[in-house]
Amino acid sequence: MNLNRNIGILTLRLLLGFIFFFQGYGKVFKFGVNNVYNNFFKATYEDLLPEFLTYGTAYYTSYVELVAGFMLIIGLKKDWALYALASALVIVTFGHSLAEPIWDTSHVLVRAVFLVPLLFLPKEWDKYSLDYLFSKRKVTVLHR
């Protein structure tokens, strides 16, 4: 049972990490955040929000997805990564809802379904992560 639990948490963390990491990677390195802003954010939100807010949001969400997604993949500072990704999901949900009150929520809901359980599950169950490795190391050093 413990192995199933550990593999289940690893699977959730990796799925969510890869989804966000590659989404951020595409925005930052493939398309460029300026192009993402000019082709989506600017056209969608220019009449709804101030430019500085949409410009900042394009950069914030793109880099959070990239960096926090990578942090989840390797299991480093998982809670902080999840908090950052949760904030990005809330921002994206607000933005899409503001632009179009009835929109396809499937891409946000899948991420939320993977993210929320990771916030609730005990940290010590996530044994295949750098956080767990570092916590075990700290305990070993303290007991010497």
In short:
The protein contains 6 helices and no strands. The chain is mostly helical.
Write down the overall mean pLDDT: 93
The radius of gyration is 18 Å
| Total DSSP helices | 6
- Helix amount: over 70%
Low-confidence stretches: none
Instruction: Tell me about the largest β-sheet.
Output: none
Number of strands: 0
How much of the residues is beta strand, in percent?
Answer: under 5%
- Helix-strand sequence: HHHHHH
Structural class: mainly alpha
Tell me the span between the first and last alpha carbons. 32 Å
Query: What global shape is seen?
Result: elongated
User: Which assembly state applies to the chains in this document?
Assistant: single chain
